[in-house]
Amino acid sequence: MTGRVNPLVAAILGVVEGVTEYLPVSSTGHLILASRWLGLEGEGVDAFDVVIQLGAILAVLVHFRALLWDKAKGLLVGRRDSVLLLTALVLGFIPAAVVGVLLRTKIKSLLFGEWPVAFALVVGGIVMVIVEVVRKKRGAVGLSGLEHVTPKRAFYIGLGQCVSLWPGSSRSMCTIVAGQLSGLSTATAAEFSFLLGLPTLGAATLYEMYKSREALSGIGTGNVAIGFGVSFLVAWAVIAAFVAYLKRFGLLPFGLYRIALGAIVFLVALR
Prior knowledge:
Helices cover 79% and strands 0% of the residues. It has 271 residues and is mainly alpha-helical.
């Protein structure tokens, strides 16, 4: 491992994770770029970038605590809306879980670099711009409310989530766009994307902690705790603001940002 993760670096990476995890700009891509530009490389750093996602996961639990508690109580009595949401989350989770386990090593060896991230940022940005322009032209609003996330729509969103295994593509972008294309409103697609992050990010983080436990030991428990805490606080604020934003505006600015950032990364990498 080159470079060293200290409390300041851990806090910086925590801010990057918290800001970007639930925005459609790719937290993994931003963390890879931030780590490289801070002079950090190695398995331990890559594992640290994944593990501090736990803070962002906790932020979702806190933000949606009333909804989750209500759905949990509904499951105990077999309430239809609760069973439907659980079914949707399971169907949305399975595709990426299977592909992630099968291709984890290949993804880390081939795609954790500036060039793959830049490519994914630009392509994802172009897709977002096209989808937003077409939806606006057609006057498409989409269905609002999690009750419209049917098993079929959830599975389509899960297939979209598989694309997000490419760093830089963004799990939020892939799932929100897939939700839009399935007929959901942008805000509802985003809310389901946040909830789908609970099993997806939770499983990925725990798996990474187990597989890279020796490499993580070199980072230090204190630094991991700082990254976790900062990512939680920042992600909690971002979730609330992003949901409010999506109820009034679309994803076009994020698409343009991705294209611009990807172009900058390409130019920097060419120097």
